[in-house]
Every structure is written in structure tokens, then in C-alpha cells.
Design a protein that fits this description.
The chain folds into three domains: 246 residues, Endonuclease, Chain A; 196 residues, polyphosphate kinase like, CATH 3.30.1840; 168 residues, 2-Layer Sandwich (Endonuclease, Chain A), CATH 3.30.870. The longest helix is centred in the N-terminal third of the chain and has 33 residues. It starts with 48 loop residues before the first helix and ends with a helix. The protein is of the alpha/beta class and 823 residues long. Helix 4 runs antiparallel to helix 5. The radius of gyration is 28 Å and the shape is globular. Strands 14, 18, 19, 20, 21, 23, 24, 25, 26 and 27 form a ten-stranded mixed β-sheet that branches. Its cofactor is Mg(2+).
Length: 823
């Protein structure tokens, strides 16, 4: 496959694609065609996806959303984010935006500053029939923006499709039921919770798409309810019957034989009953606290005929097996059904009148003012405690629940009717990961083991990693390349190398048993200067990071706990090494976390380089973490909140100007989310100028492609499959010049303005060719790729009968195996 960074040939000219494209506003082509790049194709091993793919041991990590993004009453990202409000970093309104004043880095596209400055008011080359001038279109009009909440739910619809897709192995479909539940839970906690906070604060400002917080809250709940109902139908009508056919039976309690009921009752009495704690609500007992996302039974009892009903809550224990096995066969009954059927043992001498299974979701959006907090650690601990008792933002309850239970829950939890989801059981599919992990390989994807990098090999190969990196840059691609033999090895060798003077690392998320943290501790014990930036505000990982930060400090390591006003999201590390010709800096800049488990399931990139300019840039970034002042200018890196927004705007405008001048112009950008209104407008202008644009956006995308005379030169793609697409790649071509970047930031306002992020140029032609290959294969994928329509809906690319299937994940797994064998 083209793009192996061991190749000695220089990269051929890329992507000379014609810029004239059909008007796609009303296109009816059901099979969007992947447009091949001029200098090569995807691997010849593009075999059927189901034959190539495989399953991971810890599937619960796959497709987790980014847990750090929620609107709140004090947020400038949800309500109140007017399209022009975010542009102060660059300057100017939509009608009159001067060009950024900072110079472009030496490695980027050459630019005529006068031309770029005039770009917003220059007549754009027609992009199709009836081309228009850019200034004649009000690009701040809400009609040009999709709602971010509904866009995220559209992504969850694509995730749910993996459960309904009969081409996926059965237990893979079961796994996606669990993944979907985790994702929607997080969305409700963060996004809906944040919107509810805005409602309570009386916020009415509209988002760029013209919706108020109340409108978003209503529409998000309506769409989430529809998706959860579809999930329920999928299980009842598709998954459960298919499991039965394969001999995996999830049975109702009333289907059990008398002998099985006795066996289950004995199990309940000996193992489950001692763990249960009934909490009664009556004049002598206050309404019980109901923990977030816990599965509960509401029980109505009566002490004697004619007496009032009494409500009690029984929590279904999370530390018990959800699927209670019957005998030695693959025959199971759900734990909540076992508890419900044996309540007489928990409530003796009363009549159990009725029951209802329910589940509550609490708001995750609890914030503190960092500027006035005396102790950041204490502040985070308070946030964790308050999150446990936060406002309830959703109630899921069985569809046939008794009215008495429903009324009590709604009243005591202070819920609006819209926040109540009546669903057919089972509620809470998170535990279906247990079912997906059954030892039934014929119903699962083949296992995948990440491979050694062809240039780095394994630890046993003998050559020090620093020698390899100093020869030339190394690009690692997870989960195809093993994290342990690349990034982890980079830090482990540094920790034990007598010539290494210092190690610095920024930790955003890491495993609970992180070997990376242990390696940094070993480095300190070996006499290295070690400094670690641990982001305590990484949502839902605060407690884990807090524990690691304390452990690092106990070892005498310099620990920074974050930066006031910003969240540190960059994935970077720096090694300072004494060598014969002086001190050498070795850097790692990645798109993914230093997390050994997610590196097996998330698709990510990382650059290992000895480039002194990049190293010096990282020195500045790390000095900001432990100091208090931030540099705004960097030699090569794009750093937020420093120069990143300006540089990206400059790059898009430069490409647009070249298109106006009649030169070849192309943008391909791969990211998780595209939300920033200014960059959306810049992309619209570039399209109107004739730039050919492909956006590979995993989930949220505000931009609307295919709008006549505005975005008809833009295609938006989304890949949903075995691995979570998590890398960011940015490619810009202007005439005969092109440049490539990768790093931690999406094109979101929060990433560009409110986080510390790092994007690095990729300058080695061999590595550029590898990025070409990645982008090209994605754009040719016919198994996992979806294409957005101008109304924000997505159509899945259909596999052509007369063509081989291209599966980006299967292609790169096979490629990694081949390269390992070859080297």
C-alpha cells in the first residue's frame, strides 16, 4: 500500500482533482462516489468488512463521546454564541473581517497578504450555475447553520445503526446497544443538563442556528426519545429473536420452569437479598435519594386490605451480575426480574401491589469559578460531590408503570412531562457489554492485535528509539500500531536512559492502572527532572486524575493541575536528552490520550520527532503549564489559545484566494467536530471561491453542504464502524503548494479559544504520503462512511454490487499486518 513511511521515494503530487462539480443541492444519487486521488488507490486487500474486522476486549470504551462539552448558564458556547461573537480573536465582523496580522509559519502556504485581506469583499469565482458574490450572501443567517445538539443526536443515530445492521456479527450488534446507551446517557447529562441550567437562569439568547435554549431542550428531548424507542424496538424485534436462534436465550421470569424458579430463588436469597436496601417513602421517612443512572424498582405495598399504598425504592445492585445464568446453558434471566419476582422476601407481611422499573439521569454540569477558588483540588472534589446530588434531567420508566409510582417520581424529582421517557424494557443496556463478551467467536468480529511499527519494531529489536527518531520523523497510527511499542516505549526508554535529563508530559485522560504514570514515577526515581501537567477538569475523569496527581506529587514530581480559565487538552510530551553534539529535544504530539486501553479502540495519530523548532515550541507550552504566562508566537506549532485560530483562518483564506486566481485549490479536513461559526463561514467563502472541500467529521457538524451557490463544493463525510475515528488531519493545497497538520484540536470554539491545544505540521514527504493514504481510503470507504445532506440528515454509502467493498478499518488492519511481516 502506498504511503509506508519506510519508502525511500518522495511523495508524488497529490489530489489533482477537478474543481468543477455538479450542483448537489437536489442530488438524488444514493451512492456518493469516493473520488480517488491522482497518485494512488487504497490497498489491494479491500476485502469484505465482516471478514476483516474484529472485536476488542473492553468494548465499553469504544465510541465514548467527548465528555467535556456542555452548555451552562455561564457558558458562551451554548446560548448566546452569536455567529460574530466568537471572532474577536481574529477581529472584525462578518461584513468586514480584516485578515489576521500574524505571519504564517515558514512551512505553510505562501500568501499574498493583500489578496487575503481583500478576500471577504472580492467577487468570488462562480461555484456553479448562477455563481454569486460572497458579500451578497449573509453568512450569519441562521439558515446556514445546523444545531449542534441535533447534530450530535444524528451521530448517535448512526451509532445505533450499527446495532440494527444485519451485516455486523450478532454480538457486535449487542455491543452497540450498550455503546449507544452510554453515549445518550452522557448527552443527556451534559448537553440536556446544561440546557436545563440555562432555562433556570432565564437565558433566552439564540445559538447560531437561531434556537433558544428552550427550543433546543424540547427538540433534543424529542429526538432522544425517538432514538431510545428505536433502540428498544431493535432489541425486542431484531436482537433478541436473533439471539434465540443462536441458542442465547434471555427469558422472562414467567417462562422459567418450577425447578428453575426454585434455583433462582435460592440464588436471590443467598446472594442478592443481603445486598438490597429498601427505602420507604412515608410520613416517617423522607423521599430517598436516587443515585445517577442507577436502575431501581418502585414498589407499591399495602399493609392490609383498604390501607393506603406505600412507595418504596429498591436499587438494583450494579455490583451483581445483570444476566443471571440458568444452569450451564446460555440461558439467562435479568437480575431486575429476579428481584421483582422475589419481593415477598424483602417485604414480608405486606401485599406487594405493583412495581415499576425506572432509572434517573442527573445533570453533570456542575461548575465553579476557578478565578476565586483558593485550591483547585478542593474545588474539583466539591464538584464531584455535588454532581452526585445534581438536578434530575431525565426519568426512564417502564411503559406500563402504575400511575401512582409515576406521579410520586415526577413530583418528588420535580420533572417536566417532557423529561419522562416511557420505554419498553429492558431499561439500561450498559450491562449488555457482558453479553457481547460471551465466548462465541463465531458471533463476534475477529480479534485485532495492534502491530509493531515497521520502523520502530519491538523493544527486543535492540535499536534505541531515539536513534530511529533522530534519523527522521515517525508517524504512529493507532490502533494499527501498538501503543506499548511506540508512545509508551518512547517514555519508558526515556525514563531509563542515563543521557535523558528531563521528561515533560501533559496528561488529559489515562488508564486507571496507567503504565505511563508509573513510567514517569520511575523517571523521577532515576534522577530525571519530571514535570507533568494533569488536567483535573477532564470531565468524568476528575477523580482518576486527582488520584494520579497526588501520587505523582508524593514522588517529588512537579505537577501542574491545569490552567486558570482554560482546559488543557493537548496530548504532548517532551524528552530532553544530552548527546555528543549537545542537548537534543524529542517530542511527541498526538491526537489521542496517553491511555493504553483507548489506544486499542480509538483511531489516532502521533508524531515522534527530533525537530528542534517543534521541541522549542513545546518547551514554551510546558513553561506555560508550570508558570503563568503564555507565548503567542511559535516557530512551527499551532497552539491554542495563541496562534491556532489565526493560522487556520489564514490557511483557508489563502486557498480560497488561489482558487479565485484560477489555481488548483483543495481542502481536506478530518476532525471529530466542526462547530466554530467563523470557520464555517470561512469554508463557505472558500467553496464560493471554487475550492474543492471534503470534510470528514465524525459527529457534530454545523456546516450545511450542498447549498446552491454557497456550499455546493463541500462534501461532509462521517465514518462509524469498528474503531472510533478520533484523529485530526488538516490538508491545504493552493496551486502547487500543500501542507499537512495533525494534533489535538477540532474546529470548535472551545478548542480554538478556551483550551490549550497543539497542532503540528507534518513535513516529511513520506509521512505526508501516509496521511494522503488515510484520507483517500476514508473517502473511498463503502462500508462505514455516511454522507451528509444539506438538511443535516445522513445517507450511508451503499456497497456497489459490481465493486469490491472498501472498509477503512479492515484496510489498515491488513496493511499493518503486511508491513509487520515485511519488516
Amino acid at each position: 500500500m502506498r504511503g509506508d513511511d519506510t519508502s525511500e521515494s518522495d511523495r508524488a503530487e497529490q489530489w489533482n482533482r477537478p474543481t468543477d462539480r455538479p450542483n448537489r443541492t437536489n442530488r438524488d444519487d444514493d451512492v456518493p462516489t469516493a473520488r480517488a486521488m491522482s497518485d494512488g488507490g487504497s490497498s489491494s486487500s479491500d476485502t469484505d468488512a465482516t471478514a476483516e474486522e474484529g472485536a476488542e476486549d473492553d468494548a465499553s470504551l469504544a465510541y465514548d463521546g467527548d465528555a467535556d462539552d456542555a452548555p451552562s448558564a455561564d457558558s458562551d458556547e451554548g446560548a448566546g454564541s452569536e455567529p460574530d461573537a466568537v471572532e474577536t480573536a481574529v477581529g472584525g465582523s462578518d461584513a468586514d473581517e480584516p485578515a489576521p496580522t500574524s505571519a504564517l509559519p515558514a512551512d505553510t502556504l505562501s500568501v499574498d497578504e493583500t489578496s487575503v485581506a481583500d478576500a471577504a469583499t472580492t467577487t468570488d469565482r462562480p461555484s456553479g450555475a448562477g455563481g454569486v458574490r460572497a458579500e451578497s450572501v449573509n453568512l450569519s443567517d441562521p439558515r446556514y447553520y445546523l444545531n449542534r445538539e441535533l447534530s450530535e443526536l444524528a451521530f448517535q443515530r448512526r451509532v445505533l445503526h450499527e446495532a440494527t445492521d444485519e451485516k455486523n456479527p450478532l454480538l457486535e450488534r449487542v455491543k452497540f446497544l450498550a455503546i449507544f446507551t452510554k453515549n445518550v446517557d452522557e448527552f443527556i447529562r451534559k448537553r440536556v443538563g446544561g440546557l436545563k441550567q440555562q432555562l433556570a437562569a432565564g437565558i433566552t439568547e439564540e445559538t447560531p442556528d437561531g434556537r433558544t435554549p428552550r427550543e433546543q431542550w424540547r427538540e433534543a428531548l424529542t429526538e432522544a426519545r425517538s432514538l431510545l424507542e428505536r433502540q428498544s424496538r431493535c432489541y425486542r424485534e431484531e436482537i433478541r429473536p436473533a439471539l434465540d436462534e443462536e441458542g442465547i436465550h434471555i427469558v422472562d421470569y414467567d417462562e422459567l420452569s418450577a425447578a428453575e424458579r426454585r434455583e433462582v430463588r435460592d440464588y436471590f436469597e443467598s446472594s442478592v437479598l443481603p445486598t438490597l436496601t429498601p427505602l420507604t417513602f412515608d410520613p416517617a421517612h423522607p423521599f430517598p435519594f436516587i443515585s445517577n443512572q442507577s436502575l431501581s424498582l418502585g414498589v407499591l405495598t399495602r399493609e392490609r386490605p383498604g390501607a393506603d399504598l406505600t412507595f418504596s425504592r429498591v436499587k438494583i445492585p450494579r455490583n451483581q451480575v445483570r444476566f443471571v445464568q440458568l444452569g450451564d446453558d446460555d440461558r439467562y434471566v435479568l437480575l431486575e426480574d429476579v428481584v421483582r419476582a422475589n419481593l415477598d422476601l424483602l417485604f414480608p407481611d405486606v401485599d406487594v401491589v405493583d412495581t415499576a422499573l425506572f432509572r434517573v439521569t442527573r445533570n453533570a454540569e456542575v461548575r465553579r469559578d476557578e478565578e476565586v477558588a483558593e485550591d483547585l483540588i478542593e474545588m474539583i472534589e466539591e464538584v464531584l460531590e455535588e454532581r452526585r446530588f445534581a438536578t434530575v434531567v431525565r426519568l426512564e420508566i417502564e411503559r406500563d408503570a402504575p400511575v401512582e409510582v409515576l406521579e410520586i417520581l415526577r413530583r418528588e424529582l420535580e420533572l417536566d412531562e417532557r423529561e419522562v421517557f416511557h420505554l419498553d424494557g429492558p431499561l439500561d443496556y450498559r450491562d449488555f457489554f457482558e453479553l457481547a463478551a460471551l465466548d462465541r467467536p463465531e458471533l463476534q468480529l475477529p480479534d485485532w492485535t495492534p502491530q509493531p511499527h515497521p520502523r520502530l519494531g519491538t523493544r527486543e529489536d535492540g535499536r534505541p528509539i531515539f536513534d530511529v527518531i533522530r534519523d527522521r520523523d515517525v508517524l504512529v497510527h493507532h490502533p494499527y500500531h501498538a501503543f506499548e511499542d511506540t508512545v509508551q516505549r518512547f517514555l519508558e526508554e526515556a525514563a531509563n536512559d542515563p543521557d535523558v535529563l528531563a521528561i515533560k508530559a501533559a496528561i488529559y485522560r489515562t488508564a486507571s492502572d496507567s503504565k505511563i504514570i508509573e513510567t514517569l514515577i520511575d523517571a523521577a526515581r532515576n534522577g530525571k527532572q519530571v514535570a507533568v501537567m494533569v488536567e483535573l477538569k477532564a470531565r468524568f475523569d476528575e477523580e482518576n486524575n486527582l488520584e494520579w496527581a497526588k501520587k505523582l506529587e508524593e514522588e517529588g514530581i512537579h505537577v501542574a493541575y491545569g490552567t486558570i480559565g482554560y482546559k488543557t487538552h493537548t496530548k504532548t510530551s517532551l524528552v530532553v536528552r544530552e548527546e555528543e553534539d549537545g542537548v537534543q529535544l524529542y517530542s511527541h504530539i498526538g491526537t489521542g490520550n496517553y491511555h493504553s486501553e483507548t489506544a486499542k479502540q480509538y483511531e489516532d495519530l502521533g508524531l515522534l520527532t527530533a525537530d528542534p523548532d517543534i521541541g522549542q515550541d513545546l518547551v514554551r507550552v510546558f513553561n506555560y503549564f508550570t508558570g503563568h504566562s503564555m507565548h503567542r508566537d511559535y516557530r512551527k506549532l499551532l497552539v491554542a489559545p495563541g496562534n491556532m485560530r489565526e493560522r487556520f483562518v489564514d490557511l483557508v483564506r489563502t486557498v480560497a484566494q488561489r482558487a479565485r486566481d484560477g489555481e488548483d485549490a483543495r481542502i481536506v479536513a478530518k476532525m471529530n467536530r466542526l462547530e466554530d461559526p467563523q470557520l464555517v463561514r470561512e469554508l463557505y467563502r472558500a467553496s464560493m471561491a471554487g475550492v474543492d472541500i471534503d470534510l470528514i467529521v465524525r459527529d457534530i457538524c454545523r456546516l450545511r453542504p450542498g447549498l446552491e451557490d454557497v456550499s455546493e463544493n463541500i462534501d461532509v463525510h462521517s465514518v462509524v464502524g469498528r474503531f472510533l475515528e478520533h484523529s485530526r488531519i488538516f490538508y491545504f493545497r493552493a496551486g502547487d503548494e500543500d501542507c499537512y497538520y495533525t494534533g489535538s484540536a477540532d474546529w470548535m470554539t472551545r478548542n480554538l479559544d478556551n483550551r490549550v491545544e497543539a497542532i503540528t505540521p507534518i513535513e516529511d514527504p513520506r509521512l505526508q504520503s501516509r496521511l494522503d493514504e488515510i484520507l483517500e481510503t476514508i473517502l473511498q470507504d463503502t462500508r462505514n462512511r455516511w454522507v451528509m445532506q444539506s438538511d443535516g440528515t445522513y445517507e450511508r454509502c451503499r456497497e456497489r454490487v459490481d465493486e469490491a467493498t472498501t472498509d477503512v478499518h479492515a484496510t489498515f488492519m491488513e496493511s499493518a499486518r503486511e508491513r509487520t511481516t515485511r519488516h
